[in-house]
Amino acid sequence: MDLEALRTTALGFVETHKTWAPLITGVIAFCESVAFLSLLVPATVILVGIGAMIGATDIPFWPVMIAAGIGAGLGDWVSYEAGRYWGPGARRHWPMRNYPEMMDRGEVFLGRWGAAAVAVGRFIGPARAVVPLLAGIFKVRRLPFQVANWLSAFAWAAALLLPGAGLLGWLQG
Q1: Rounded Cα–Cα distance for residues 164 and 162 (Å)
Q2: Which pTM does this prediction carry?
């Protein structure tokens, strides 16, 4: 299945099953935030599309936004813990071993910004895929990691969902 078909299928499913929108959105945000899954799932485009659906239909904004934030936060947390567990060996596991340049850039980024790289990196596609994993590998302290993780997870969810939800709602109102 190509990425366009996956996007169309996911958005069609959400439109058909509106009551499941928060859960679906949370799972998609989780996939986008887990180190290896984010390389396989075109979640950003799907989440922006769900935001537009919120603005055009009766899907409630807050449950979807909260679910997206929780999914994103949990995904980064899983990546962080995987990095702590596997340590530097995580770079040798698939699919990370296929992206050594991205891992190297993420390492430099993390070294420069520390735990703040988690918050900033969430808004930068390639960094989002590796920074939490690298934070775990380099044993960034849990509290600064989690503060950056959870604050940025909800800001990221709002940034993806609000334009479609708010703009379409405003234009229709």
Answers
A1: 6
A2: 0.87
Peptide bond into 95 cis (omega under 30): yes
Q: Which tokens is 110 given?
A: 């993390």
DSSP 44-97: HHHHHHHHHHHHHSS--HHHHHHHHHHHHHHHHHHHHHHHHHHGGGGGGSTTGG
User: How many Å apart are CA 130 and CA 39, to the nearest integer?
Assistant: 10
Return d(Cα 110, Cα 115) in angstroms, integer: 7
Structure tokens at 50: 């769900």
Give me 119's structure tokens. 């918050």
Task: Of 155, 76, 86, give the one whose Cα is nearest residue 110.
Answer: 76
Give the model confidence (pLDDT) of 85-101 as tens digits: 998 888 888 777 887 88
